[in-house]
Amino acid sequence: MSRRLVVVSGGLSDPSSTRLLADRLGEAAADTLRSRGVEVDVRTVELRAVAHEITNAMLTGFAADELADAQAALAAADGVVAVTPVFSASYSGLFKSFFDVLDRDALSRTPVLLGATAGTGRHSLVLDHALRPLFGYLRASVVPTAVFAASDDWGNDADLGPRIERAGAELADAVLARPEKGDPVAFGDDLPDFETLLRG
Amino acid sequence: MQFGIFTVGDVTQDPTTGRTPSEHERIKSTVAIAEKAEEVGLDVVAFGEHHNPPFAAPANPPVLMANVAARTSTLSLSTATTLITTNDPVRLAEDYAYTQHLADGRLDLMLGRGNTGPVYPWFGRDIRDGIELAIENYALLHRLWREENVDWQGKHRTPLQGFTSTPRPLDGVPPFVWHGSIRSPEIAEQAAYYGDGFFANHIFWPASHTEQMVGLYRRRFEHYGHGRADQAIVGLGGQVYMARNSQDAVREFRPYFDKAPVYGYGPSLEEFTSQTPLTVGSPAQVVERTLSFREYVGDYQRQLFLIDHAGLPLDTVLHQLDLLGEVVAELRPAFEAVRPEHVPSDPPVHPRVAPAPAEEVLA
Q1: Three-state DSSP class for residue A5
Q2: Biased composition, Low complexity: where in the chain (chain B) (predicted)?
């Protein structure tokens, strides 16, 4: 058995606490899967690296090069971790733009674990007010625990680790509850015969 | 093989002078461009259909096709595209058949679904029915050109009892139809089912889209028994800007590229030329790039170029046509030299239309 996880980080700085949280969540899910005898392939998508391509895709209508590659990886993912910094009371514009140019069926029924980071804990409801509706629209299967980490939590919050563990385990459960996605069908191969299309 | 140009009739400000042509000017320029195309030895000009600014393209292309047919003698007229979704197929059958008579058979058409969302509601349609409309409307159009006294009932238009579309196609031969789509496999399937042509827009998008659509169309063409996959009738778009010296071409075209509709303010000219089939350079570079298209679509029958958009002034476009005439004179024998014998050089043409110059070149 083998599964593909894709970790999306919307962090802009280096080092980035968003990337740190994303990595921890991805590792937690991967560890749980491995402990159950599942081979895991983890791929990380840093949105900063495709920021120009995301803007170009909005303007031209097609994704080029690395962005196209990242989109294909998401469509083929058995599970996704998506983490954004909070900007102006919501997900960052870059994070939203990445999902705006993604095929709207790409994450359909895919288990997704959400995370967000911010300077203070006052933004924590962003997970429920902004992120869950977005992934609801994409018809993703969002796991119950989403993880928020404010700057303080990296020092003071002894519960951050256990929250990450719990969330990772939930994603692993959700991934195992679904059949392996495998490789996508070749273009046009899932098309009904034309006589069927003609009958409307 | 047929070579030509396609235009969408955009009325765009020239970014180097700030001047925007009037609609009248753009319309007359389109006619002048078509006449010039024949003069430099091209075979086809295809006109877009539009219903909104900033386009001065006909809402019903046969109006323009009839005018150009009267001013030319060998040029074939086509469309890029005719909206099969929002037009009444009965009017399409009648208007294109009438124009086919006026043009003595020098006419075919390319069907598309359109890419302007509000056009659907303007004509009482729903964009979510786009594929369904394309399938139902074409099924009716196809019958109207082949049968008299048609009884028909469908979901999207009023039924017909004993209806005969007039005039009948010239000598009973319906205009050849191409189906165009960038990404919808249903349209490649439709083209294959009827044994019609498939046209890949091929501009503004990566070649990988074209490759997968043409590949699907060819496989299904064979599946439906119209011939071998490599005998399917394929047309491609292309976008070029040329100067004798490639650096001049880049320097001249960049201000138009940077602010162009569709892709302006986005990727750089260099990125876009590597990501899409756009070629900006010398005529020799255009010859080389164009000959490479067959590596991923196979040997094909029609190549159209976009040369008149983004605010390029008429005199520039006419100069581009002079250069394109030279390019095409090189492309014709080069494409035929590598084409297998069992693969047709040309798409089907009306029996009254003289054979394309390709055969003369080879003879």
Answers
A1: strand
A2: 351-363
Distance, in Å, from the CA atom of A4 to the CA atom of A73, rounded to the nearest integer, reads 9
**The tokens of B131 are what?**
């594929």
Gap between the Cα atoms of A24 and A14, Å rounded: 16
Name every residue whose Cβ is closer than 8 Å to that of residue B182 and which is 6 or more positions away in sequence: B200, B201, B205, B209, B213
C-beta of residue B48 within 8 angstroms of C-beta of residue B100: no
Look at the block and give the residue holding tokens 């039924």: B159
Asked if B15 contacts B255 with a C-beta cutoff of 8 angstroms, the reply is: yes
Cβ B279 vs Cβ B212: under 8 Å: no
Inter-CA distances, A104 with A6, A84, B132, Å: 17, 19, 21
Longest dimension (CA), chain A: 65
pLDDT digits (tens, 9 = 90+) for A67-116: 999 999 999 999 999 999 999 999 999 999 999 999 999 999 999 999 99
ipTM, two decimals: 0.85
Structure tokens at B41: 């030895």
Domains and CATH numbers, chain A: 2-198 (3.40.50.360)
Nearest CA-CA distance, residue B293 and chain A, Å = 19
**Domains (ranges, CATH) in chain B?**
2-362 (3.20.20.30)
* CA gap B187, B199 in Å, rounded: 10
The answer to whether B266 touches B276, Cβ cutoff 8 Å, is: no
C-beta atoms surrounding B90 within 10 Å: 19
- For residue A58, list chain B residues with Cβ-Cβ distance below 8 A: 266
Q: Is B5 helix (H, G, I), strand (E, B) or coil?
A: strand
Q: What is the mean pLDDT of residues A142-167?
A: 94
CA B107, CA B101: separation in Å to the nearest integer?
9
Helix (H) or strand (E) run with residue B224 in it: none
| Interval A159-174: pLDDT, tens | 999 999 999 999 999 9
Q: Which among A59, A139, A143, A68 has a CA at the least distance from the CA of A104?
A: A139
Nearest residue, CB atoms, A194 vs list B154, B193, B205: B193
CA distance A86 to B22: 48
Task: Answer whether B355 touches A (CB < 8 Å).
Answer: no
Give me the helices (H) in B123-268, please. 130-144, 185-194, 207-223, 246-258
- Cα B119 from Cα B51, distance rounded (Å): 7
On chain B, the residues whose CB falls within 8 A of the CB of A197 are 131, 135, 186, 189-190
**Min Cα–Cα distance to chain A from B237, Å:** 17
Put simply, whether B267 touches A (Cβ < 8 Å) is yes
**Residues A119, A122: Cα–Cα separation, whole Å:** 9
- In angstroms, rounded to a whole number, what is the distance separating the alpha carbons of residues B240 and B271? 15
Question: For residue A11, how many other CB atoms are within 10 A of its CB?
Answer: 23
List CB contacts of A80: < 8 A, sequence separation 6 or more.
A5, A6, A7, A8, A74, A107, A110, A111, A112, A113, A140
CB contact under 8 A, B271 and A56: yes
Phi/psi zone of residue A137: left (φ > 0), alpha (ψ -120 to 50 degrees), beta?
alpha
User: A110 by DSSP, 3-state: which?
Assistant: coil
Question: Inter-chain contact B185–A187, Cβ cutoff 8 Å?
Answer: yes
